[in-house]
Amino acid sequence: AKEQGKSRYVRYVEEMDARAVEHARLGAELRQALAAGDLFLLYQPVVTLPHGEMSSLEALVRWRHPERGLVSPAEFIPVAERNGMIVEIGAWVLREACRQMVEWRSRYGDAAPSRMAVNVSARQLRDPAFVRTVADVLRETGMDPGDLLLEITETAVFDSGPALETVKAVRELGVGLALDDFGTGHSSLGLLRTCPVDVLKVDKLFVDGVTGAAEHSAIATSLAQIARALRLQAVAEGVETEAQAKRLYQLGYRLAQGFLFAPPLPAGEIERRLAERAGD
Ligand code: C2E
Ligand code: CA
Ligand code: CA
Ligand code: CA
After folding, report:
1. Residue 155: which residues within 8 A CB-CB, separation 6 or more?
2. Mean pLDDT of the chain
3. Strands 255-256 and 39-48, bridge-based pairing
4. Among 11, 39, 90, 167, which has the minimal tally of Cβ within 10 Å of its Cβ?
C-alpha cells in the first residue's frame, strides 16, 4: 500500500508538472496570438423581457489557435491572469469593443445597442494604469463613457485594496459598472453599500433555480427585490428556457441574457440584426 501511495504521489507531481508546462506554453502562445491578431470578439445580446429585444451587448473574447482551434476564455483568461498578459489583452478587448460600438452608433443611430459591456479581471483592476487606459481608450475611439459598462466580479473588488478606489475613479469618468456573477462571491450584499454599481448580473446558478421549488428560486427572487430597492438594473444570466424567462419576468426581471435569446455572436451577425431593426 505504501508503494502504491508513493507512486500515486509521483504521478500527482508529474501531472502537476505537465499542467505547469502546458500553462507556460499556452501563456507564451497567447503573447504571440495578440500580436498575430488571433484574438477576436463575439457579442452576446442582453435583451428586454418579455419580448426578447436586443438592448445592449457584452463583448466576449475568443482565441483562434492555429492548431488547437477555438480556445475558450475559461481556459486562457486564467493563464493570462497568472502571467500578467491579461493587462494587454484586456486593453485590446476594451479598445476593440469601444471601436465597434462607436461604429455601430454612427451606422445605426437609435437602432444601435444602448451600451457595450466589457469584462474586467481582478488583475486589471490592480494595474495602477487601468484608469488611464480606460480614459485613453474612450478618448481615442470617441466612445461616449455612458455607452460603456465594465463588468467586474465581487471577488475582484474584495481581493485587492486598491480595486475599490480604481472602480470609483472609473465611475467618475462616467462609465457604468456591473457586478458580474452576482451572488456567487462572499460578500455580495456588503459590497453594494460601498461599490458604486449600476447593474447586477444575477448568476446562472440562481437563474437555473427559478422554475423549481421555492427554496431554489428564493435567491433570484430576493436579488430582484434588492435591485429594485437600490434602483439598480438586474440582468438574469444564462437563461435557456421559455419557462425561466417567463418566471423571471414575473419576478420583476426586465433584462436577460442567455442561449434562449442569443449565444455570443460574431460582429457580422449583430450587424445583420441591427440593419433589420434600423430598416423597419
Ligand atoms: P461571464 O462574463 O460570466 O460570461 C458569461 C458566459 O456564459 C459566456 O461564456 C457566455 O457564452 C456563457 N453563456 C451565455 N449564455 C449562456 C447560457 O444560456 N447558458 C450557458 N451555459 N452559458 C451561457 P464565455 O464567452 O465562454 O466566457 C466565459 C468567461 O470568461 C466569462 O464569464 C468571463 O468571466 C471570461 N471572459 C470572457 N471574455 C473576457 C474578456 O474579454 N476579459 C475577461 N477578463 N474575461 C473574459
Ligand atoms: Ca460578464
Ligand atoms: Ca457572468
Ligand atoms: Ca461567469
Report:
1. 122, 185, 186
2. 92
3. antiparallel
4. 11
Dihedral pair phi/psi, residue 266, rounded to 5°: -65, 155
Is the predicted pLDDT of residue 247 greater than 60, yes or no? Answer: yes
Of residues 93, 91, 79, 175, the one with CA closest to residue 127:
91
Minimal-distance CA residue to ligand 1 atom 11: 264
The residue nearest atom 21 of ligand 1, judged by CA position, is: 238
Give distance in angstroms: CA of 173 to centre of ligand 1: 26
Ion ligand 4 nearby residues (CB, 5 A): 181
Tell me the pLDDT tens digit for each residue of 49-84.
999 999 999 999 999 999 989 999 999 999 999 999
Q: Kindly tell me if the per-residue pLDDT of 1 is higher than 60.
A: no
* Residue 18 CA to its chain's centroid (Å): 30
Neighbours of 32 (CB within 10 A): 10
Residue 184: how many CA atoms within 13 Å on its side-chain side?
A: 16
Buried b (16+ CB within 10 A) or exposed e, 64-77: eeeeeeebebeebb
Helix (H) or strand (E) holding 84, with range, is: none
pLDDT of residue 42: 98
Vertex 135, ends 129 and 137: CA angle to 5°? 100
Residue listed under C-alpha cell 455607452:
147
ipTM: 0.98
Indicate if the pLDDT at residue 237 is higher than 90: yes
Share of the chain above pLDDT 90, in %: 73
Q: Residue 248 corresponds to which cell in the numbers above?
A: 423571471
